[in-house]
Amino acid sequence: NLKAVIFDLDGVITDTAHLHFRAWRTVAGEAGIDIDETFNAGLKGISRMESLRRILCHGGKENAFDNEQQQALAQRKNTLYVQSLASLTRDALLPGIRQLLHDIRLANVKTGLASVSLNAPRILSALDMGAAFDFCADAAQIARSKPDPAIFLAACQGLGVRPQEAIGIEDAQAGIDAINAAGMLSVGIGDDLRHADLQLSSTTELTWRCLSGFWVDKHQ
Ligand code: BG6
Ligand code: MG
Q1: Do 134 and 3 contact (CB within 8 A), yes or no?
Q2: What is the ipTM, given to two decimal places?
Q3: Is 47 near ligand 1, meaning CB less than 6 Å away?
Q4: How far is the CA of 175 from the centre of ligand 2 (A)?
Q5: Considering the chain, what is the average pLDDT of its residues?
Q6: What DSSP letter does each residue of 50-80 carry, written as one string?
Q7: CA 178 from chain center: how many Å?
Q8: 69 Cβ partners below 8 Å, 6+ apart?
Q9: Which of 104, 114, 194, 211 is surrounded by the most beta carbons within 10 Å?
C-alpha cells in the first residue's frame, strides 16, 4: 500500500529557480563567468557547493579559486539568494499543492520533504507551510547531492516507510534519478524529464486522484 508521498521543494512546492539563477549569475559574473538559463536548468536539484563547482568548470575556472575562496563565493550567492526570498509569501505556493497536501492527509498517507536546500526551513515558513509535512529530511545531514538517493532515503527513514511504499515528486532530472535510485515510484513535473514513472506538465495536474490512480495502476 501507498504509505507516503515525498516532495521536492524548489520547483514542486514553489518556484525559486529564477531566484537561484539571478544570484548565481551575479556571482558567476563577478568571477568572470557567463551563465544562461539553459545552463541554469542543469543546476536544478544540485546542492550549493556542487552547483558552484559546475559553474567554475563551465567557465574553465575550476582551479582558479582555492577552497576558502569557493566558500566565500557560495556564501555571497546565498546572501543574494536569501535577500531575494523576502518577496516570497504564501501566494508563491504552486497551484494545487495546498489542496493536494490536504487530500493526502485525509487519505491517511504521510507527507515528506526531500530538498537539498539548506534554506528549506526558511522557505517553508515564508510559505506558511512549516507544519505541512510529517517529516522534512535535513539537507545539512546529507553529504551527496541528488542524483544520489540519500535525501529521499533519509525522508523515507524519517517517515518510517520503505521506499517501495512511497512516491517521490520532482521537477529536476537529478531528482527523478534520485527517486528511481531510491527504489520509489517517480512523478516528474514539467517537460524534458526522462525516466519518470509518471510525467505531468504542471502541478495543476498533480491531484490526489491522479496520484492514487497511478499507484493502483502500478500495483496491479
Ligand atoms: C535545490 C535547488 O532545491 O537546492 C538548487 O534546486 C539549489 O538550485 C539547491 O542549488 C541548494 O540550495 P541552497 O538553498 O542550499 O543553496
Ligand atoms: Mg526541484
Answers
A1: no
A2: 0.99
A3: yes
A4: 7
A5: 96
A6: HHHHHHHHHTT-TTSS-HHHHHHHHHHHHHH
A7: 11
A8: none
A9: 114
